[in-house]
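Researcher: Next sequence.
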Amino acid sequence: TCAYLCANLILTLVALNNPGYAPTQWQGTLLYWAIMVVAVIVNLYSSTILPKLEFFILALHILGWFAFLIPLVYLCPQKATTTEVWTTFRNDGNWPSTTLSVFIGLIASVFANNGTDCAVHMAEETKGADYVIPWCIVSTSALNGLLGLGTLLSMLYVTPNIDAVLESPSGQLGYPFMQVVLDSVGSYAGATVMICIVISMFTFACIAFLATASRIVFAFGRDKGLPFWQTMATVHPKTTLPNYAIWIITAVACLFGVINLGSSTAFNIILSITVSTLYSSYTITEMLLLWRRIRGDIRKPNEMKGSTWQANELVWGPFHVPGVWGVALNAFAVCYGTIVIVFCYFPATVSPDPATMNWACLIMAVVIFFAVAYYLMYANKVYKGPVVEISPYQIS
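Model: Next structure:
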């Protein structure tokens, strides 16, 4: 999804600077593949500098935010009023109520916050992961939440005429924010530089997502939970990277890109499960954690002194919210995830056509069908649950 969005951003930026240009599907697919190639090269051959690269990306992320927003707000010739920004609600999908429209529109913001769990899947390569990883999730969520809120409010204030922006060439291509930037700064060169900051962050995100996805495939292959799990769980002896998992993820993504050559609608149908699959995994995990928490099945570390740890025994790590506040947070997460899952299957309008229909429910059902079929026919013979690694001090 990230590589596809990045490719379309590049094509829309070209169209913004060349009014007579009309992007084609094959151009988008080639750019999509090119971005995947960049992500593969960085993951395979630059793994030793990946931590330094991530630090550079963080600095660019924060500095780029200021470089984008300051000229956007300062140079804007006309701004919306505070009343318009905070009291105007639109129901362009013609839903029975504005409240329902707001919940359906919530999914766009949810999609923008995807990927907060990426650090979890890199835990085996992180020192002090039981403490560092939770703080990474909390800090990145807080930071990006604040930056995202600032960006959202700024975009609303510098967009006095939403309809005109949506009807602009870049709006028709699905990226109206580019027209907002151009109208605000009044310069094609300035707008291009600002939009390139956004495109660069999407490109860096593709690198991170590939690293994360490859670790998920590797771990699930190690657990014997995927077809060809012997290959998936292989680690290169020199680089200690799951090279096969990286190549497999890339190959599958590139094969999906072929679909875009024939029909962008069909390709978007496949991409529509992004939010539903992620939040299904999040919410199921939160439900199980809440259930275990209420039952009192999770032991405290000080209760484990002098005892032998069992492979399936749950023990709190150094980072957790204890007591009733922890239960309340888990319950809120379950409720929030459930709301997201329900509304991520709604189309944008009451009467969608095949191109604008939300096919996530159909694709999700197909994925579940094949997963269950694979488990019943083969995986139940080899899959015995996650492989648990126990440190020496846990069994001493």
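Model: Confidence is low (pLDDT under 50) at residues 392-396. Residues 188-222 form the longest helix (35 residues).
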